[in-house]
Amino acid sequence: MIENKKLVFSGDVGRDDDVLMYAPSKPKKADYIFLESTYGNRIHPETDAKFELETYINNTVNKGGTIIIPSFAVERAQTLMYLLWQLKSEGKIPNIPYIIDTPMGIRVLDVFENNAKWHKLSKNECIEMCKLFTMITDYKDTIETIYDKQPKVVIAASGMVTGGRVLSYLEKYIGLSETTVIMVGYQAEGTRGRKLLEGAKDIKIYGKYYEVKANILEIEGLSAHGDQQDLINWLSILENKPKKIFLVHGENIPADELRIKINEKYGFDCVVPLMGQEFDL
What we know:
The protein has 281 residues and is of the alpha/beta class. It contains 9 helices and 12 strands. The chain has a 6-stranded parallel sheet, with helices on both faces. The chain has a 4-stranded parallel sheet with strand order 1-2-11-12, with helices on one face. Strands 8-9 form a two-stranded antiparallel ribbon.
């Protein structure tokens, strides 16, 4: 509350049907809302992300290849761990190493284990899930894993391939045709992840170009961001009409499409602010 005006910031709005997290809380009252618009023009596909993961892993292992999954360290890595644990428990993926190489992601597991009410897993499920994985924090173990030739699944940050240990893995594996790289989250304009999805023939890592021979795949259903419908639903229990909704944290086209949809649905005044633009509230 500022000068008797209630400002609500959405942050990243999660999905109503997320694998791990409960549906996001919705605001009841607001004078001004700052709403993210990452997937403002997109509806998540009605596909089975777990089955896609199973298929991609088995196809790759049958070729003798390694699966590399660039992942955000918080929530996405844990979601992947949960799905892999389910698949392994069901006997649907092979007995190979499953590796988490993100120190931040590993530390977050303690938060998950100690705060079961924040997510859908019990404390025991968290403990059992973690038993499947080799967890790497020391970089020398990263190097050893990279040069281990056996097929494996590696989850490593960063999710958009902009930095982190995933780059070290890609240096070794991006040029091998038996490798599969699975993208599981939003890839912003200008990132390596976006370039890979768009079919880049080579990629620059630490000042050197590497030919892309790996199979680059995407599982859209694993995004933690709400889609257009989730974002619209997030506004559904407002008891008053906001004076203005600012659509932020999104590229121009998705944000503008969301602006139109919100106006059509609720009649709210929405705006996509320009860089440096100022507003009097």
